[in-house]
Amino acid sequence: MRINPDRKFGTRECPSCAVEVEANHNRCPVCGYDFPQPGPTRKWLWPAVAALLLLALLAWLV
Length: 62
What we know:
The chain is of the alpha+beta class. It has a domain at 1-36. It has 1 helix and 2 strands. A two-stranded antiparallel ribbon has the order 1-2. The longest helix is centred in the C-terminal third of the chain and has 17 residues, at 45-61. The chain starts with 10 loop residues before the first strand and ends with a helix.
């Protein structure tokens, strides 16, 4: 896969100084505001809930 360095990303507005910042930047170049990073995904949550519900159902049937 080749990366194109000239590719344009979307922009987002800095909540601190209202400057348009490229979406792939994590810090505003004008005021230094750090954009929050997304948290980890919880792909394990739904299978764990389903397993607990299944165990509860099996315990109720026995």
